[in-house]
Design brief:
Elements (H helix, E strand, L loop, with lengths): L3 H4 L9 E5 L4 E8 L2 E4 L2 E9 L2 E4 L4 E13 L2 E13 L4 E13 L4 E8 L22
Parallel strand pairs: 1-3, 2-4, 3-5, 4-6, 5-6, 6-7, 7-8, 8-9
């Protein structure tokens, strides 16, 4: 009925939550993880480093710098994020600095801060402006 091969397969990365901070928890400090991190509670004055994903749920409040592959924000976030991708969902709010390769903003999401897109810049599709010589004015 069930083969060992199928049951031994790893779950998709979204299901591999290694660290979960519950809704009633408040933590501070540094979290380092090779898996994904899910935050339902409060993180204060901290740092989160993950080779996986960081999920900030609707009721979560996070004030920490984050370095991860993907950061998905449904709650409130303040700090600096360095990631491959940031997803700001409709209930999410960000105050801070983002350095990403990909950014998704759902309608209703709030973002105040700076966004720096990493990677090679595309070619500018507009011609460069030519300097305009001063036009002499007769008096």
């Amino acid at each position: 009925m069930f083969s060992k091969e199928k049951t031994a397969q790893k779950a998709p990365i979204a299901e591999q939550i290694e660290v979960e901070i519950g809704a009633q928890a408040t933590v501070g400090g540094t979290i380092r993880c090779d898996g994904s991190v899910k935050i339902d509670g409060v993180v204060e004055n901290g740092k989160i480093e993950s080779t996986g994903n960081v999920v900030i749920s609707t009721q979560a409040k996070v004030m920490a710098d984050i370095k991860a592959r993907t950061v998905s924000i449904s709650g409130a976030y303040k700090g600096k994020i360095i990631a491959d991708r940031v997803e700001l969902l409709s209930s999410g709010r960000i105050w801070g600095e983002l350095q990403v390769y990909s950014f998704l903003l759902d309608e209703g999401g709030f973002f105040r801060g700076s966004l720096v897109m990493q990677g090679e810049a595309p070619a500018v599709p507009f011609p460069e402006e030519q300097p305009v010589d001063d036009i002499p004015v007769k008096s």
